[in-house]
Every structure is written in C-alpha cells, then in structure tokens.
Amino acid sequence: MQPPLENESIVLVFTLSGLNETMGNRFVFFSLTALYYLLIVLCNVTIIYTVISHKRLHEPMYVFICNLCINGLFGTAGFYPKFMYDLLSQYHVISYAGCLLQIFVIYSSVLCDFSTLTVMAYDRYVAICKPLEYHSIMTNQRVREWILFCWLSPFFCMCVGVVLTSRLKLCGSIIEKLYCENWSVIKLSCFSTTVNNVIGYVVIIIYFGHAILIFCSYIHLIGKCRKSKEGKHKFIQTCVPHLLALLNVTVALLFDVLYTRYGSKNLPQDLRNFMALEFLLIPPILNPLIYGLNLTRLRKQVMRVFFKTKVEISD
C-alpha cells in the first residue's frame, strides 16, 4: 500500500486567485457586472414570459428558444452572484461542495446549450425539408422528449465528471480562475487523473460532434433553400440566428477548453480573465437578442409586452 504524500491534505475550501490583480477597480467592476447581469436576466425573462404567455408562440421553435433562455438564466446563476460577492470581499474563497456545484451548474448549462441548438437544427430541417409532415413529426410529445434530452444528457455527463473529480486526493487549493472549473481542480490532484482526462475528452468530442452535425445539416439546408424565395426567406429568418448562436457557443467553449489546458500563464491576468469568461458573457445575452430581434412573430409580441400596443401577428 502506497504511503500518503506529505503534501496531501483534506481540502475544505478553494481560493480563487483570478481577481488578485484587479481588486483596485473592484467597485467599478461590481457596478458593471451588476448592470450586465440585470440585462441578461431582463432579456431572457422577457423572452420566456413572452413565449409562455402567448399561445400563438406555443410552437416547437419558440419552445426551444424559451428553453435556451431558461438555460441561460440557469448557467449565469452559477457564476454572477458568487462573482459579484467576491468583488466586494477581501477573501475569494469557495467551499469544496460549492466548487463542485458551480462546476456542475456552469458546464451542464453549456452542454445544454449544445443539446438545445441540436434539436433546434432538427426542427428547422423538418420545417424546411418536410413542411407537409412537420406537425405530424414535431408533436407535443416529441417536443417534451427533446426538452428532457436537452437537460438530462448534460446533467448525466456532468454528474459523472463531478463524481470522478470528487474522488481525487488533492495537493493544493488554489484555482487560478474567477470561478471553479473542472480541469483546474483536476490539476490539483496528487495522483493520476487519466480516467478524468479520458471521460472529459469523450464528453468534449460528443458535444463538439453535435456542432459538426448541425453545420453539416445546414449545408444541406442551404442547398435546399436556394431553390425557392420562400425557402431563402425562412432560412435567413430562422436558421441564420441559430447558426450565429451555435458559432458563438462553440467558439467560446472551444476557446475555454483549449486555454484551460494549454494556455500560457504569461498573459496579463485581465486578458486571461476575459478569455475564461467569454462563454459566460456573450451567449447568455446574445441568444435572446438575436432571436427576439430577428423572428418577426416573437419580436412583435415582445413589443406588445413592453409597449402594451396591439400589433398584428404575422410571420
């Protein structure tokens, strides 16, 4: 039996060192962060309320958009409140259990984004390529099944990842980021992390495979839509925003994964913080904006919510 390492200890709290070099402007950062988080909540809640409260928006595409916004609120709730607390606190620490919970919330939210965008791509494929069969394929039961898939598959993947991480014996407690990230905790392990690495890369490959599948399906849709003006209009109105959302979350997560594993520590702390936060900054605000502004029916209903005007609903 291998004797315990001298540096091995039971970690009760982690120290988040990402804010150490930026505390001189913490009140400015707190104000900007609070306003930005409020904007995220406002935009997403507006879309959710609009879709739920108007029966004419109870269609698969709008239900999936609503799910995307709910997920945006879920993921940002795992970061912004704790981050704002740290901006006002002298000590930037998080409990062991709180760290694992933050990992689960943030990264299951990112994976849920991929799952939701995948089923939205399937919905657009059916709507454009099989319009006469659309309502028989995208039934209420099918939509409920897809929504469950969007949430349960990321939850399962992250449960496996968090459980494997929780079994590691750690030789350190300093995380060089603004929030808890799975790979940053794994790197503190005293022993081999091969199993964690393999499972992590399997999950990454699966979900980036989702993105590749969507891009390939859209190449097929582009060829289909070129044949008619109506097809071009439908593609531009519903598929282009979807592609922008997909490109945004894919690039953001890919950047986070590559930077966390292979990034240089020689970069300025502020730049490293921004690069680590990109997928928590852009997608939660971009998703409700691009769909809320681009989709005519949804945009008109949002205007009715804010201005209480009677607007004719048409696509």
Automatic annotation (TrEMBL):
Q: Return the GO cellular component terms, semicolon-separated.
A: plasma membrane
Taxonomic source organism = Culter alburnus
Extract the signal peptide range: none
The entry's localization annotation reads: Cell membrane
Protein name in UniProt: Olfactory receptor
Q: Which residues cross the membrane?
A: 27-49, 61-81, 93-122, 143-164, 198-222, 243-262, 274-294
Could you tell me which Pfam families the record lists for this protein? 7tm_4 (PF13853)
Main subcellular location? membrane
Please state which protein family the record places this protein in: Belongs to the G-protein coupled receptor 1 family.
InterPro entries for this protein: GPCR1_Superfamily_Member, GPCR_Rhodpsn, GPCR_Rhodpsn_7TM, Olfact_rcpt
The protein's GO terms of the molecular function aspect are:
G protein-coupled receptor activity; odorant binding; olfactory receptor activity
Instruction: Supply the alphabetized keyword list.
Output: Cell membrane, Disulfide bond, G-protein coupled receptor, Glycoprotein, Membrane, Olfaction, Receptor, Sensory transduction, Transducer, Transmembrane, Transmembrane helix
